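Q: Could you write out the predicted structure for this multi-component system? I'm mainly interested in how the pieces pack against one another.
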Amino acid sequence: MRDVQHDNSLPIGAGVGYKPQHFAALTDDPGSVSWLEIHAENFMGDGGRPLAQLRHLAERFPISVHGVGLSIGGEERLDPEHLARLKKLTDWLNPAMFSEHLAWSTHDGAFLNDLLPLPYTAETLSRVTAHIDQLQDHLGRKMLLENPSSYLAFVGSTWSEPDFLREIARRTGCGLLLDVNNVFVSATNLEFDPRAYIDAYPLDLVEEFHLAGHDEDADELGRKLLIDSHGRPVDEPVWTLFDHVIARAGARPALVEWDNDVPEWDVLEAEAARATQHMKPALAAAVSA
Amino acid sequence: MNDSVTFSSTGDVTVTQTAFRKALLDPQQDVPEGLTNPDGQHADKRFSVYRNNVAHGLSEAMLTGFPVLAKLVGDEFFREMAKVYLRIHPPASPLMMHYGAALPGFLESFPGTLHLKYLPDVARLELALRRAYHAADALPIDPTLLTRLDQPALMRARLHMSPACEVLITKWPAKAIWDYNMKDGPQPTGGAENILISRVGFDPVAERLPQGGAPFVRSLIKGRSFGTALGLATADTPDFDLTETLSVLIATHAITGADKPD
């Protein structure tokens, strides 16, 4: 639907999660924001203002469609109606990217509106793989799979998360979306070294980064428990971890997510500008190489 | 990560999603076995992060979706009520834009609001306005196309109604209550209402129809001819005010076209 001069891929720069309250400010002056992410499920109505705004935005910005409701990690089969809705949206929009989560959200007739965790085992590996094969066949496009944020561990897990993601990508041909905040949140909550996680991660398969803010809480033993709340600026240690990622992987399209207590446009744009700033050395190196 | 932790748990450590889901929606349920903190100990507080995420996410979505209800009962009461509702009626699909469809029925028997008998009607109106917001786009008819038809032709014509258009028959003055709370309208009075919901541009609208307007518009939506709809309306209400009904339909962009009669 975008005009032909557009290269239909995400630019290697900063994007933000689109919020309707930013529509006017963002179309007036996007500043450092060069692409937008939308949550697929918010644009599955039949018409009205949401789709009209999206049509308008898609003429100006590359769009990444981010699904939050397919339940790829679910025990049950993928919902054929939801697959059809995703297909309808991506066929109409022809987005620059489509991504979903290593998580589940629907079971026994209930959509729980959260990204719920799964153990990493031979059984879940084959199930997730089958679901991604089915999704990519159905949409006729490659997807990116995002690493989750974790609050607890499964006794039954037999794979590490980076190995599990690498194996899924190897079997399905999907790419990966590396959420740097999720790595930091999980590393704090499950007490592992976030840099070691990054070093073990198949960075060559990563086609997009996510950055977001988190909240801090504590468990019943008084241990730090970080909550992936998307309601604050990106935390300093996450920027530091982002630098580590960039040093190893180089620059990629990088998204700032801010879904709760959404700030004024200027505040969000400043976060995107900071993400661009962090990637500048890598971008310069890539250009001169 | 996983291999750095030795677990001492015995027995089956498979956490089914059935068990997870049950414990998620019911705080009285034990946290499933097989979920731990980094030391292999039970992870109750950690599990409650998911419980809170689900309850908070769904109740906030309802608060956004039912602004007048929330105003009528207060945000805090509404959130607590939503937490009861979501355990009985979790969303059936990932389309959160339509979440809460069972709220009118729930409110009919929720002990905390039984004395506020008009709440179910207000919930129906708020749901209908949300459906209208997300309905397919359609342009309104040029009204002169209707006025140009002679009487027999008009009676045989089938009108195309906007995808956003629907009709509610309420026992309580839901539209007046909505206006009072959202538009500083006058103190709500009266009883039953026939309410037309439609959309002008991208903005949902609700307008009161004269008595008999509901069966009239409903039969137009079903694709019956103008004459058939009028017959139904006058059977319901002998002094049915067609002129007023048509002016509401035109003003709310509810009519989008007409089939030329054969």
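A: Regarding packing and overall arrangement: Chain B has twelve helices and six strands.
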